[in-house]
Design a protein that fits this description.
The chain has one helix at residues 10-13, and strands at 20-24, 29-36, 39-43, 50-56, 59-62, 66-72, 78-84, 89-95. It is mainly beta. The protein is globular and about 35 Å long.
């Protein structure tokens, strides 16, 4: 499960399918998205955890990352997202397959 203990209402439950690891070959980095304490969060290596706020369907915003818009396949599964930030416009992140723990 990609959620840590904490309050999570119906809206936050709908974000669970977005949780996972996403890789940008352009930036040579991987971001981890998780649902924690009722918020969708993003972990950028070497940075503090960032809480994302929903701003439109399939689009979230947060400090440092600006706006991220999810891309979905025909079944509706999140396959990646695009970052729209001051210094990084249109940077694509692809969802990585889940790892076995």
């Amino acid at each position: 499960m990609d959620e840590l203990p904490g309050p999570c209402d119906r809206l936050c439950q709908s974000w669970l399918p977005l949780a996972g690891d996403y890789r940008s070959n352009e930036l040579s980095t991987t971001y981890a998205l998780r649902v924690r304490d009722g918020a969708l969060t993003i972990q950028i290596p070497g940075r503090a955890l960032i809480a994302l706020q929903p701003i439109a369907p399939g689009t979230f915003a947060g400090s440092l990352v600006g706006a991220i818009r999810f891309v979905h396949d025909r079944r509706g599964a999140a396959t990646g997202f695009t970052v729209q930030a001051y210094a990084a416009r249109g940077v694509r992140f692809a969802r990585l397959p889940p790892t076995t723990r």
